[in-house]
Amino acid sequence: MSVLMAVCTPNSHPHDDGRVEHGYQLNVLDEELAVLATVDLPDWESFQEEAAGQRLAEAGFALDGTDEDAWSPSGLGFMAPVVRTGPTESPQSSV
User: Which end of the chain is more exposed for a tag (fewer CB within 10 A), N or C?
Assistant: First the structure.
């Protein structure tokens, strides 16, 4: 089974209070760092963990495991291991 990671990063550098002006982008990457799916989140001013999980589900992926703290801070964004729940040959998407 391949290792997949979801990476959610801001589209602009955060202000001192943590807000961003241009939303976030959620990418699902395979073990070779190829992008399998992209979800644009232009209205987000901050990372929304629960909503990120829902958007992953809409794109055919789910958080790997039941750990509620699956999202780990990574640089300016967040990352979490995921599994594919949709078709194995799903095209890149912008849900």
Answer: N
The residue type at 6? A
Q: Which DSSP category does 42 fall into?
A: T
The residue whose two tokens read 């001192």 is 16
Q: What is the tens place of the pLDDT at every residue in 61-86?
A: 999 875 567 889 888 899 999 999 98
CA–CA dist 3, 95 (Å, integer): 22
Q: Which residue has the tokens 């073990």?
A: 31
Other Cβ atoms within 10 Å of 54 Cβ, number:
10
Q: Which residues pair with 79 in a beta bridge?
A: 7, 72
Residue 89 tokens read as: 């040959």
Residue type, position 21, single letter: E
Give residue-wise pLDDT tens across range 8-35.
Answer: 999 999 999 989 999 999 999 999 999 9
